[in-house]
Amino acid sequence: MSGVTEDLAALWRPAPAAPSLPVAYRQGTVLTFDPATLSNTVEVGGTVLTDLPLLGVGEASLLTAGSVVGILVIGGTGAKNMVIIGRLVLPGTADAEEAIGLLNSLVFAATVVTQEGRSSTTFGDLATVGPEVTVAVRPSGRLLVVCTCQIQWVESVASPQRGGWATVEMSGANTVTTTTARDVVLPTANLGLTSPGTTAMAFQGSYCSAGVFDGLDTGSTTVTMKYASQYSGETVDFGRRNLVVMTL
Asked: Which fold has domain 18-103?
């Protein structure tokens, strides 16, 4: 009877620990890397491997062609799996500065509260320039830009149509004109009256536009909000101007 009891007790015991798989370490060099899909090719010991899994996805945007990465090799004499465990970075180098930047805030913002007018249909500055921020475009070449502002004016019989636009301009490592930028971000207000009547009418609204700029060059880039009236000679006021830029 005691033997039977012992056999039944074994059903409730935890399973014995299985032997762990052998683990080895190697280094590889990234040949290609797509930060959007994580698709990659890596040369390890003269062999080109495709689409290795990543352990440190958080720093994936820093991987570019030529990056030296640590490779974890899992498995024994049979099948082996390889995993990218991270980029090797030497202290005091540009790579180190970039890696440190990844740990810091990736969101940059600026505000100009002042309400000022513009009557030109060409994008430009107001009396108080900005807001503007300077960011370091990362190897991904992508920035998320958000523009918000209050746009207002007074309609009258003499000018039954009025409207205003805001967008951004980039300088530094990247030159992006307002003509190009307005395809991505363009807070807009417009009002047209076919029968305006005889009484002036105030118009006011807060507007927001957001978009992603991609294909940018790596490096320090200044992003500045710019403004324009939609109708020549008609003054439009812009206030509570906010600019938010996030590196992706």
From this structure: OB fold (Dihydrolipoamide Acetyltransferase, E2P) (2.40.50)
The Cα–Cα gap between 167 and 224 comes to: 8
CB-based contact 168:225 (threshold 8 Å): yes
Alpha carbon of residue 38 to chain centroid: 16
CA angle 45, 46, 48 (to 5 degrees): 105
107-247 topology per CATH? Jelly Rolls (2.60.120)
Structure tokens belonging to residue 228:
């324009």
Which amino acid does the sequence have at 76? G
Give the DSSP letter of residue 14.
P
For 27, the token pair is 């280094």
Rounded distance, CA 206 to CA 187, Å? Answer: 9
230-to-127, 162, 199 alpha-carbon distances in Å: 18, 7, 22
> Which positions ≥6 away from 208 have C-beta within 8 Å?
146, 147, 148, 187
* 4 beta partners: none
Q: Per residue of the chain (248 residues), give pLDDT as tens.
A: 444 455 555 555 565 666 667 788 888 999 998 877 888 999 998 989 999 888 877 677 778 888 888 888 887 666 678 888 888 777 777 766 666 666 555 888 998 988 999 999 999 999 999 999 999 888 888 899 999 998 887 765 455 677 888 999 999 988 888 888 877 777 766 555 545 555 555 667 778 888 999 999 988 899 999 999 988 888 889 988 999 999 88
